[in-house]
């Protein structure tokens, strides 16, 4: 009987077979003003629930800061968005049409989600400009890469990004010889070269001097609007200087959301941060 | 310091220019000194020396192939000798078929070793090797396809570093054991030898020896230029990126496995070509060429010459092999000690190899 049922379902005339359906659109559709939907996501590592029924929405062009104590699931959340970790349950949509959970890491990167890691990793033996060139959105298969030449347009794009991150003077310098702060900016520049819609930035100011921090704040603020930016950061002063909207994560789910002042006066947040 | 990105156009570094000029001069001079200068003149280059030089040049090409994957891609292959030997075997099979009925047993259909083993028919995989074009194709295809399949299996499972090196070592060792067996049909322990001629030219004649020497020089120059083109291209920069930060490169959107696979296979093809030119000059190919020790020696040449420079690999291969020829002549027992000592000294005091030393001298001047 069961086989018959399956057959009946398969042959229903009001449905189209799965394999005949058009592949999901890989065009980003932000018609509802939201770029990222994370709904009811849970992940467990060896019995430890890193993410617990997390719901998070990021608007198009928004600059969002995510804070939370260690182990709150901030990095795991980024891993899920970039395809590094698969959640046990829940859905992750990029715009209206793209299901992130079905895509691989390079596919997600090429769709326009860029991630900056905590520890800056630039390609040290290559020059600043070459670093940007490699990161540039382009056909990245083997043969086109072998034959690739920089067009005038692409050079202009590299110059633009060099100006945005303030490294024009260092364009020919070996990336390994840059200072820590400059490496962080170069890495943000490498993200920008991919023309991402969504930037995930993990602890951008760790280890920076105050001047460098201020410049980074300006840089990130200038990026919002054109891109959606999600910043994970521990430094409260820095968060206050850039954020309109702050999300507090705690034990894998959202504890509070709002402006910095709202969040800081929220009794639950105070308890988590101070009361423990 | 470079002010701009080199966009794939063939821009040679100074070391490369000097190397190519020296190679061109040698290639022109050696035949003249061999053929036109009388034998009793001190300037005369003997045919023995010509063949020796030709052999060194094939080693140099092999070293360039290893430098491409080790220096620029970070894959320490301890099995490149296998690709060299496979190219050599493909050429050896053609040369065996060229012997025809001039073998010891005078059998027009079967090579001597098959007659000796009481075989009555040519095994299927020997068919086609009486044609030069087919053999030449196999010289390229057999190492290339093997490297491709091997790379596909290992890179896809993200085997890297020391583990990959060990697997490449196992690959060449397994092939050595297989080729030692008589049943494999490649002459077993003795390998393939007693070659008579190549494309109708007598292998013992001076002119053929010169021809092979020139062919080796051309192959080395071509291989060098191809590698230089690759290294200067955007793909070359991606390779360096993979070498230094593999997962980062993957995050930017490059298909790291594909890049590794193609460059590794290309390198294996170069090694195969080097092997094919080596065999007619030394007159024999046997399973000893698959020995893991050989593959490790290639890596030592590259380390001594200087990694990630390409010309350094050439320099290392030539110097070490000259040293080997010299020392095994005057003091056979000392050679392995000298090689080991040299490797230790270079690792300790010249991590960039001789090329690094030259470059530092050049920068200081």
**Biggest sheet: strand arrangement of chain A:** 6-7-8-3-9-10
Taken together, the total number of domains of chain B comes to 1
Oligomeric state of the chains?
heterodimer
> Strand share of the residues of chain A?
15-25%
**Uncertain stretches of chain B:** none
Which structural class fits the helix and strand makeup of chain A? alpha/beta
Membrane topology (chain B): Multi-pass membrane protein
Keywords (chain B): Cell membrane, Membrane, Transmembrane, Transmembrane helix
Pfam family, one (chain B): BPD_transp_2
GO molecular function, one term (chain B): branched-chain amino acid transmembrane transporter activity
Describe this structure in words.
The complex is a heterodimer of chains A (276) and B (365). In chain A, 37% of the residues lie in helices and 23% in strands. Chain A is of the alpha/beta class. A six-stranded mixed β-sheet of chain A has the order 6-7-8-3-9-10, sandwiched between helices. The longest helix of chain A has 14 residues, at 180-193. The N and C termini of chain A lie far apart (58 Å). Chain B has one domain (14-292). Helices cover 68% and strands 2% of the residues of chain B. Chain B has 14 helices and four strands. Chain B has helices spanning 14-35, 47-71, 80-99, 112-116, 132-156, 161-180, 206-232, 234-244, 246-252, 256-282, 292-305, 311-330, 335-349, 353-364, and strands spanning 192-193, 197-198, 201-202, 284-285. The radius of gyration of chain B is 21 Å and the shape is globular. The interface between A and B is medium-sized, with 31 and 28 residues. Chain A: It comes from Thiorhodococcus drewsii AZ1. Chain A: InterPro entries: ABC_AA/LPS_Transport (IPR051120), ABC_transporter-like_ATP-bd (IPR003439), ABC_transptr_urea_ATP-bd_UrtD (IPR017781), BCA_ABC_TP_C (IPR032823), P-loop_NTPase (IPR027417). Chain A: Its EC number is 3.6.3.28.
